[in-house]
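[User] I have long wanted to understand how a fold can be written as tokens. Those tokens are not coordinates but codes from a learned vocabulary of shapes. Could you go through the record with me and say what the backbone is doing? Thank you; the sequence and its tokens follow:
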Amino acid sequence: MLDPLFSDYFLRIGNGVENHHSCNMVKLSPNIILPFEEDILSLNNLINIVFPNLHNYIEKLDYMINRVILTPKNEYVDQINNILIEHFPGDTFKYFSFDEVLDNTQQGMQADFLNTLTPNGIPPHELILKPNCPVMLLRNINPSEGLCNGTRLICQTFEHNVIKAEIAIGEHHGKRVFFA
């Protein structure tokens, strides 16, 4: 269920009509601010507030798919995703990227360096997933079939090089797809 007051508040910020200081900064309402304690502890507190009782979401996937944590940098997204996937019930499945360098003389060093990069629109070198965890497409694969940038899916089953998922929202909601 969506929170209309929170949605309206964000719309007012986006439309530039929310009260702000002279330096064009919006003062956040105290009821949406969490006190900072320590990096991991504070992130866990945030996750527990945004996704309370994470283990119960398997029966209410629509409820979970409407919740998000927004961050200003991709490195924070990866950190939050790693913490979230630890809290998610089920066995983990790991997928690794296949990077190759053209100059084989320094392949080991260059491949290791490539594996540390996470540019926009590219998943991390090590992708860790669990059954029923949500994912978001980062590229347009087949827009006419509902597989476009921003599409949210729910992972179902995993094979060595294949992920079976279901589109979670939109016109193609419920459609099952495979990624290889």
The beta strands are 93-96, 126-129, 134-136, 152-158, 163-167, 176-179. The mean pLDDT is 83. The CA atoms of residues 97 and 125 lie 5 Å apart. The chain has five helices and six strands.
